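Sequence in, structure out.
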Amino acid sequence: MTEPKRIRPAPKSVRVEPEKWSRWTAAAAGMPMNAFIIACVDYCIGLPSLIASKILTDDDHRALTKAHAALGAGRIPNNLNQIAKALNEQALIMSPDVEADLKEACGYVISIGRIFHKVAKSMRWRP
């Protein structure tokens, strides 16, 4: 059985002065103008999640990738794993203060991971 033919909405047009179009094109940073205009209008009417999923420049990609790599290559997750291993082997005795600090540090690492996951999902970014 064949799928029904997808019906596309009729195209719309916008009249814009050349100077304004040039500014829009520069602001779009390589993004298709149709998607850029839709994202900007959505943002203006209060749908910020839609603009986040549309506008992500090459510089944004590089910055996010660099930050994500720095988190993964950083010493904090590795150090937390080493502390957990020592605790599991009972080679380290934990006081209540140390336990509270470790829980706080783990919470920060988890929060940062969730932020990257949210960014990746909303902006269609792949680390």
